[in-house]
């Protein structure tokens, strides 16, 4: 008897091979480059190190959609912050997007 499920749940397709480089180029063209580029590079380096130890590309594949979501939500966040509304009741991105598999 096996503890593994008979059928694996479908997983999201991996990002394109150049997706991280394209994402970094998009981050570098943004006005928030001084904050976002180092943060992306730090996340990418941590995922790369994790991949080296685990022999899995999953950590690298997780960085790309996380940062795509951050970039997609940035205009809405900027609009909210510039509106002067109270943002003290915010939640973490992981809570909004769900836990990483």
Keywords:
101 residues; 4 helices
Walk me through what this model shows:
The protein is 61% helix and 0% strand. The protein contains four helices and no strands. Helix 1 packs parallel to helix 3 and helix 2 packs antiparallel against helix 3. It is globular. The model has no long low-confidence stretch (mean pLDDT 82).
In short:
By secondary structure, the chain is mainly α.
Helix content: 55-70%
Counting helices, strands and paired strands, the structural category is mainly alpha
Number of DSSP strand runs: 0
H/I helix tally: 4
- Which overall shape is indicated by the principal axes computed on the Cα atoms? globular
Radius of gyration, Cα only, in angstroms? 17 Å
Query: Residue ranges: pLDDT <50 for 5 or more in a row?
Result: none
Order of helices and strands: HHHH
The N- to C-terminal Cα distance equals 25 Å
Average pLDDT works out at: 82
Described by strand count, sense and barrel closure, the largest sheet is: none
Task: Give the strand content.
Answer: under 5%
């Amino acid at each position: 008897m096996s503890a593994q499920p008979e059928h694996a749940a479908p997983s999201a397709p991996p990002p394109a091979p150049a997706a991280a480089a394209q994402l970094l180029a998009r981050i570098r063209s943004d006005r928030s480059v001084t904050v976002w580029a180092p943060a992306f590079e730090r996340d990418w380096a941590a995922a790369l190190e994790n991949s080296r130890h685990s022999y899995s590309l999953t950590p690298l594949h997780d960085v790309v959609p996380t940062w795509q979501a951050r970039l997609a939500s940035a205009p809405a966040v900027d609009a909210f912050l510039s509106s002067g509304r109270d943002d003290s009741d915010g939640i973490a991105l992981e809570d909004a997007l769900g836990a990483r598999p």
